[in-house]
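Re: export button greyed out
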Amino acid sequence: MARMKFLCDAERCIECNGCVTACKQEHEIPWGVNRRRVVTINDGVPGERSISVACMHCSDAPCMAVCPVDCFYRTEEGVVLHDKDLCIGCGYCFYACPFGAPQFPQAGAFGVRGKMDKCTFCAGGPEKDTSEAEFKKYGRNRLAEGKLPACAEMCSTKALLGGDGDVLADIYRTRVTTRGKAGDVWGWATAYGRPDQKPGSQQPVPGPAPAPGGKS
Amino acid sequence: MIGLTRIAAAAFGAMAALMLAGCGERPQVSEYKQGKYQGKKDETPYAGAPFNGNRDQWERDLRTRAQHQNEYKRTGG
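Workaround output, generated via the alternate export path:
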């Protein structure tokens, strides 16, 4: 088996936030922590694109490199996980991560930063698989149940794919070769494209320029 | 009288041992080896039920499950 990966097809993502909801529900994530988010570029402008982002389980993870207590490890399936018993909540991983994946729950009445929390690829953590302790610290271990991450399996348009990298690449390749180039079957051009123009070739309707630093 | 002395000696001995235990210094801080994972060992996802260590079965199940994300296969298109 190759490495476990996420793949998000920006042509299909409709910013429904189903993945975010699925993740929060599956792992009972506390308020203020988002292991997964949907980022939209040029929101409200024709041709906008959304993409679902969480921990990408990097092959050479910067969070692992900067952690002063070395609480990160990579499983043989390529999932980057961490031991919350060791984490000191310093936040270095947050600064190092290019995706903003590490999250810090508020611990205590004075807003003290708690131990880091992030996407586990629904693989739990270093506690006994599918145990109560594992669920409380890291969330549900779906991989141990023979399931894939809840966000990907719940995605209504199948924009977000999760699983073995080779299998995902095959699925995506089939998809692209079947639908042709981007915008032929799914996405903005299909929904709002003008029939007298070839899909994907229409010019964006002139409109007000997007606000600087638009919604993300 | 001798019995009382013995009890007092035993109590003194126990007290001394207890107080000495307070002087014992156990390491309170982990010794980190730079660049190596310091936490608990995690077991493989297929170690427990329902796979009971059968890695091939687990991989097959995940591969089948991954194909549920391929709607071109699901619809026969």
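The mean pLDDT of chain A is 86. The button fix ships in the next patch.
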